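Below: protein 1.
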Amino acid sequence: MEKYWFDPAGYESLYNCSMYSTEKWHSFGYPNKFVGAFYTFIGIIYEILYFPCLYTMSSPKFLRFSCYKIMFFLGIIDMACISINSIMAGYFAWHGNVFCDYPKIMYISGSISVGLWCTACMSCMILACNRCCDILMPEWMEYLFQGWKAYLWLFAPSIYGLYFVFFTPPVIFTSIYDGAFFDPFVGMPVSDKERYTSWPHTMNNVTVIIVLCIAYTSICVFVCKKSQTINGHTTSGLSSFNALQKSLIAQATLICTLILSAATVYVLMQFIELSGYMVIVGQISWQSSHGK
């Protein structure tokens, strides 16, 4: 977003809408009332469901656990992003809008949504490390995450997300594909995908895929071995691997699996031409990763 505020010439070279009239730009879009209604509906449902979840997690009973501190932070980030990638995107899809219909709104909201996505990605990686420590190396939990230390960890994704807001290209929603792309003119005669490639975003997504796969594969292997040990010898081992830990693993795994799927689709979208329905799948995956 720094180009918009501090480099007007650079912004105009990449996001110039003067080559066509407003009516001509709008004619490139494809109004899709079904997709628009679906995006908006699912976004509103996610937002409504989040309120009681966050209210419950905010109680001292849950916030004494470091993983719930991280998940509560994730919930706030998710609610902010859903308002853009679901509700706002639904409006644009319904009306068949493209970038030059609302250039400032789409540019700024796209920058914010990229920052929120990357904040969620790093938070999810921290959550995965938190679960690994709890299950695989419990002696590290107090040293790394106990008390105020969990809040300290959350500074990193906050700064990380701000970097993406201000110093990387935004994703721009287009009704041509009903999805978000870095190229604001994708599907139009003036499209030039190479000019808008965001390597930091791609590196973020690839890193998320690798870290989450390693973390949750390690946890699954440990859980399987632990179960075999308990079944083969004695149930006394259950005291060291209790129902609460299993519940926390299940919650964290669900959260991070949805982010993993969205990251994978958007990495593919950077390098290969996906069909229209796959772009919609990618958009829904992104929405669901924040609405888990």
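Below: protein 2.
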Amino acid sequence: MKKWFAAYGLIFYRYLDYRGRSPRSELWNFIINTLLIQLAIHVFAGKSIVSFIFHIVAMIALAALIVRRFHDIGYSGWYLLAIFVPFVNFIALFVLLFFKSAPGENRYGPRPPPAK
């Protein structure tokens, strides 16, 4: 149990450290234990400020841990930004859906009549 607290505490000690490397065991130890702690917080405290603060701190620590994990496998930590690509694509699609129709006929056929 003491080893578990030490390993988990080390991750939070390095929660802003984006340099160096982290092994798989450190990543999965953090993910599993964070999920268990979040579950316990929700069971005992519900949706509270404690849960919110823990979640924010855990996400910051997870980002640093993932960057170090990328370093461990030989990749740049900037690959973490790839998680935002789906969000950007969703916004772009949403904006495109509000564009006006192309005037006249285009390669897909004539302009449809307006909806009534």
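Helices lie at 2-13, 24-45, 49-72, 85-96.
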